[in-house]
Amino acid sequence: MPRPNGKPTRSKYGLCDDSYICILSTEPQVDDVPLKECESRSWREFKELDEGNFSDIPGTGLTLNFPLSTKHPFVEVIGNFAVNGFNEAFEKYVERGNHSRLSSPTFRKCTYSKSGDFYEFQMTIWCDEDGFRGIYEAVVACTIDECEKSLWSLVLTGVKQGKVRRASKSKRSEDVGLWLPDIQFTGMCRRQTFYGIIYGGYDYRDPNFINF
Fold first, then answer.
1. Is 60 exceeded by the pLDDT of residue 205?
2. The CA-based dihedral angle spanning residues 189, 167, 99, 29, taken in that order and rounded to the nearest 10 degrees
3. C-alpha to C-alpha distance for 156 and 112, rounded to whole angstroms
C-alpha cells in the first residue's frame, strides 16, 4: 500500500507497518534491534499467550514448537522485521538504491520455541521480488526479557508465481552500485537454482552461523 510522504502507517494494534520502507543506514538493522514503542502492545499479548502455552506443560518446555496464528499482531511485527532487515542488507551490500527488494509480504505460517534466553520464530512468508512471487523461510530470534530482535536467516525456498527466465538481470556496477558481497561479513549468500533458473540472486544468513 502506498504511504504518503514515505511515512509508516499504523494498524489498529499500533504496529508500524514499515516492512519495505527502507532508508539505507550505516549498518542494516538485523542484530539486537530494540522493540519499538508501537510494537509493545503486540509483544505483551504474545507474552500472555506464551505463558498460557507453557502453564500446562510439565518441566521447562524448552525446544518445543508452538504454532502462532498469522492473525496474531506479533507475527506482523517479526515478519516485517525480517523483510525490512533483508531489504536493508540487500541495499547496503548488493545493490545501492534498491530499498524494496522484497515487497508485498504475506505471512503464511509461524511457529516458535523457547531456548535459553530467547524465543526462536520460524516463519513462511510470500513476497514479490524481481518479477516473481517467492516463498521464503525466515528465522527471527527475540530475547525473552526485552524482545531485542535478530534476523538469523531469510531464504527463498520456492517460487509461487514467476516467469520462466533468469530473474536477476545483469547490471553494470557503475550504474547501480552492484557488487559481490563478502558473505563472511554481510550474510548475503548466493542462491541455489530452482528448475534450472536463478531467482533473485541472494539469501540472507547470519554470518555468525555460517561455517567457512
1. yes
2. -20
3. 20
184 vs 107, higher pLDDT: 107
In the predicted model, what is the mean pLDDT of the chain? 78
- The structural domain count of the chain equals 1
Q: Where are the beta strands (DSSP E) in the chain?
A: 9-10, 16-17, 66-67, 103-115, 118-129, 132-143, 149-162, 188-190, 202-205
Count of CB atoms situated within 10 Å of the CB of 115? 13
Kindly report the backbone phi and psi dihedral angles of residue 49, in degrees, each rounded to the nearest multiple of 5, phi listed first.
Answer: -65, -40
Closest CA to 176 of 90, 88, 96: 96
pTM here is: 0.78
**Residue whose C-alpha is closest to residue 123's, from 134, 113, 138:** 138
pLDDT digits (tens, 9 = 90+) for 29-75: 999 999 999 999 999 999 999 988 876 655 555 668 899 999 999 99
Q: Pull the grid cell for residue 148.
A: 531485542
CA pair distance 6, 44, nearest whole angstrom: 28
- The residue assigned the cell 505483551 is 44
Q: Give the span between the Cα atoms of 79 and 87, in whole angstroms.
A: 13
